[in-house]
């Protein structure tokens, strides 16, 4: 709701895997709640996780020992939807990360001439990151909003971009 209420955090810890197919969750409020997933492997298939705040979006942190797969129109994002604050950071950490036909984003979409910055997207994969099939990773500030897009930082041994994949930071 409005009036200072914050979305509560969502925290998932699994010894083996977290798999989400055709589902999702989000946190909403004056400030969105932080989303944290920790497991051996994580799969989003036509699913999503979003933190949406009227003034601030919160961070999304996914930490997998082996593999993170984000597939088939899945969306991971943090949004500041009215202004005066910042969207949260997105952090992915695994041995390998596969993103096919999906989006990872931090965005500020405030009212016209409002101030608001976008968060950063940080991806760390010890072995490789594959971004393909029209997938997008972006940090953006909406049209007519005063603010800065966040950084996109990918650290890995091998990065593969194909089939109209995009990395974008914009204001």
In N-to-C order, the SSE pattern is EEEEEEEEEEEEE
Global geometry? globular
Per DSSP E runs of 2 or more residues, the count of β-strands stands at: 13
Number of helices: 0
Overall pLDDT score: 89
Structural class comes to: mainly beta
Distance between the termini: 28 Å
Helical content, roughly? under 10%
Task: Report the radius of gyration as a whole number of Å.
Answer: 15 Å
Please render the helix and strand layout as text.
Blueprint: E1 10-13, E2 17-21, E3 24-31, E4 35-45, E5 48-56, E6 60-71, E7 75-80, E8 90-100, E9 103-108, E10 121-132, E11 136-141, E12 152-161, E13 166-170
Can you walk through the features of this model?
- The protein is mainly beta and 171 residues long.
- The protein is 0% helix and 61% strand.
- The chain is built from no helices and 13 strands.
- Strands 1, 2, 4, 6, 8, 10 and 12 form a 7-stranded parallel sheet that branches.
- The chain is globular and about 40 Å long.
- The chain starts with 9 loop residues before the first strand and ends with a strand.
- The model has no long low-confidence stretch (mean pLDDT 89).
